[in-house]
Amino acid sequence: MTGTVERAREALRSGLRPVDVYVELAAGTSDLRGVALAVCDALGIPRPDAEQRLRGSEELWDGFGPGEEGLVGELLDLAGLFDVHATLDERGERICGLMHRAVGALGGIAGGVAFNLHRKLATGRLPEAYALLVRAPVRERGDPARYWALLTTVGEELAAWLPPGDDEAAGRVGEARARCAREAAAAARAR
């Protein structure tokens, strides 16, 4: 396994995405699970965390054969196996907390959106998480005024939190803040 981990590290350093590293290393081997753990190790994901993420996937390994490594890799990637969790600073943690409160005011959230949101927050992709929430529909049992007020605060905090020069994230946050302002105004009028 150590050789596989080193090969995975080299491939990651070359710029390949973790899922592509998995596919490359899994080709021609019958130990698909072992390759998944090796890629996680190369990413710095602690073994107990990787094992926990793989719990319940035993049937996956028997259901695929040679030539299907790409499909297995995509499934593992979609499930978040290769997600490297981020440690946020105080402001980042506060932003996450505000987003969690906003979800409460939303009145419910679809399972797929919730999973995607969780992945973005866990990996520190806060601008993407914010943009996702801004697009989420407020449910009938939700509190639109509170939801949009919380997201307005999130947008202000995010704008201050972003590193200088991250134009892509700044653009995403700016667009989401503009929509937030429109929705907050509409929610205030509806009261």
How large is the share of residues in beta strands? Answer: under 5%
Q: How far is the N terminus from the C terminus?
A: 61 Å
Q: How large is the count of helical segments?
A: 11
pLDDT averaged residue by residue: 91
* Radius of gyration of CA atoms, rounded to a whole number: 20 Å
Strands, count: 0
**What is the 3D shape?**
elongated
- Major sheet characteristics: none
Q: Which structural class is indicated by helix and strand composition? A: mainly alpha
Order of helices and strands: HHHHHHHHHHH
User: What is the domain total for the residues?
Assistant: 2
What level of helicity do the residues show? over 70%
- List the uncertain runs: none
Comma- or semicolon-separated keywords:
191 residues, 72% helix, elongated
Q: Could you explain how this protein is built, in words?
A:
The protein has 191 residues and is mainly α. It folds into two domains: 2-78; 90-190, no CATH class. It is built from eleven helices and no strands. Helix 8 runs antiparallel to helix 9. It is elongated and about 60 Å long. 26% of the residues are buried.
